[in-house]
Amino acid sequence: FGGVNITTFSLDPQDHFAIYAGTRENGMFYSYDGGESWYLPKDVASGYVGSIAVDSSNKCVIYAAVGNQVMKSADCNRSFKRAYNEATPQTLVTAVAVSPFNAAIVYAGTSRGTLLKSVDAGDSWSMQGKVAGSVYAIVPDSRNSSLIYVLVTGKGLWKSVNGGGQFQELTTSLRSANATDVRRLVLDRATPNALLLASKQKLLRSTDGGTTWTALPIISREGVEITALAVNPKNSKEIYYGTASTFYRSVDGGQNWSTERLPSTRQASALIVDPENPAVIYMGMLEVKK
User: Which residues of the chain have pLDDT under 70?
Assistant: First the structure.
């Protein structure tokens, strides 16, 4: 497992010891013991996995964006079946998310910018709109059932205020901050309406649901790209990010940072903080193709 290239992490909302890891070439791995041991389901044992979502009300229901498909397990990873398939093999399913408020509602996004929604747990899908670029992540707000954020790789941020019915672009303030080349977005669950966003070389925070943004001082060298981002779900002041060579930590809301060299020649690709024990942080690594 140490040699795989991690693309994404997901935690089971009901069990913080259950961790899911998507990889670039080797399918999806999962752990039920906080990362001490890892398993590979036979139906998702290869290929690119860009996103994983776990049903917040039933831990045995898992969705994975695998290549041009959404794969679904209803039996705790013992088997997976195809829930959605893109007709064009070159179009990847790049994001999948389950509503924290209604497990029957599932969202998906593609590399062509298509936004999809299912209201019957993946049995059928409808197109909800299209954004200008590849969907990197779909982030339902766990504090408000109406709010959904869509991160578009290198292009900006979109938001729905009616549960995915329509999406509006939130890039005006990002343009003024010269930060439309977005890379990562995380909810700051400890503060209402707060978000953290990493563009290629900037870190910004919003406390009004993405309408306005404030740049945080960071110490990364010029030209160094932020490749992973996380915040303590119980303490907004504890922020973490990673680059190709360094791990950064702030305990005062980004005003000051401590650093540590990564124990690998690979770059940080995914960060997630254990919501029950925030002292535990998981970091995925990815080999950069030259």
Answer: 221-222, 290
Q: Count Cβ neighbours within 10 Å for each residue of 174-195 and write b for 16 or more, e otherwise.
A: beeeebbbbbbbbbbbeeebbb
pLDDT of residue 165: 87
Instruction: Give SS3 for 261.
Output: strand
User: What is the pLDDT, as a whole number, of residue 70?
Assistant: 98
Q: Are 156 and 181 in contact (CB under 8 A)?
A: no
- Cα separation, 275 vs 288, in Å, equals 29
The neighbouring-strand residues paired with 85 are: 69
Q: Which residues contact 87 (CB under 8 A, 6 or more apart)?
A: none
**Token digits of residue 56:** 């917040």
* First vs last C-alpha separation in the chain: 22
* Tokens (6 digits) for 49: 């996995």
| pLDDT reported for residue 222 | 66
At 141, list the tokens.
């707000």
CA-CA distance, 186 to 177, in Å (whole number)? 18
**Residues pairing with 9 in the sheet:** 21
Element (H, E) at 64: strand 62-66
Whole-angstrom distance, CA of residue 271 vs CA of residue 283: 5
Q: CA 69 → CA 63, 85, 108, 141, 151, distances in Å?
A: 10, 4, 10, 24, 19
Q: Tokens in use for 272?
A: 């997630």
Three-state secondary-structure class, residue 174: helix
Residues 159 and 148 sit within 8 Å (Cβ to Cβ): yes
Q: How many whole angstroms separate alpha carbon 266 and alpha carbon 281?
A: 18
Please give the model's pTM, rounded to 2 decimal places.
0.94
